[in-house]
Amino acid sequence: MATCEVCENDYDKAFEVVIGGERHTFDSFECAIHALAPVCPHCNCRIVGHGVEADGNIFCCVHCARTSGATQLKDRA
Fold this sequence. Notes:
Layout: E1 2-3, E2 10-11, E3 15-19, E4 22-26, H1 29-36, E5 52-54, E6 57-59, H2 62-67
Antiparallel strand pairs: 1-2, 3-4, 5-6
């Protein structure tokens, strides 16, 4: 069994995620998202989907990017 690095639950179905050579152990996707998903610099939500990138930042959506000054991005046309 392995212990989740977020909630410390000792779980027989824990899994590992490797990012940049670093190993992380979780018991649920919820804990993995909490620990690893980037945070939108405008609204502070966790970015679970693709998000959008502008000026070296990852935003959850075009609205947040545009509100933060990245006016070159557009939603679907």
